[in-house]
Amino acid sequence: MKVNYFQQVPYRHLPDDFEANHESVVTTPYHGLVDPKLIVEAYRNALDECMYAARAGFDGVAITEHGQSSYDMAPNPDLLEAALAYATETQGLATAIYPIGRSLGKSREPIRVAEEQAMLDCMSNGRLICGFPVGLWRETAAACRTCHRRSRGSGKRGCVCARAPFRFDTDQRGGGWRQTSRAARSSAVPGLLPGYPR
After folding, report:
1. Which domain covers residue 82, as residue numbers?
2. Were both Cys, which of 17, 62, 106, 142 would link to 98 (CB 3.0–4.6 Å)?
3. Domain CATH code at residue 55
């Protein structure tokens, strides 16, 4: 069994009366309620927590994708994972780099998503585990101005496009699809595609 550390990037400093004055922490514009210095601190804290987990011996460091929410401000986990790939490599930590979530249902550029994953594989020296979730309908609708009913179909088409440039060996494990890609390196790049067809 492998044990991964799971990280989101929350904004922990909303006012005490937030619930009384706002409908949701998801997709609600809350720019006037946040302090830019505390947002910078939140991203740095998330990276510090991930590095702590890597040093503590977790098998992998997983960061999820969400946008326009106070519980997770990481619209692209690949950006944070790139920093972690470099930092863990320079410190000699063999921790897997696991971006859970470049939602192919939200992406209009699935090939670019695949290229980013290949780049992370190189940057991490073969420690990448890919994650392509379907995504949350409210984020798809709000962030991409896309009908949520179309996100699963977009995700399936995106999955086909993202996989096209690479050779995959697939088998089913744990409810998800474990993909082995020979994209940029000769090593295996496992990837999970929950909810997507083979």
Report:
1. 4-192
2. 62
3. 3.20.20.30
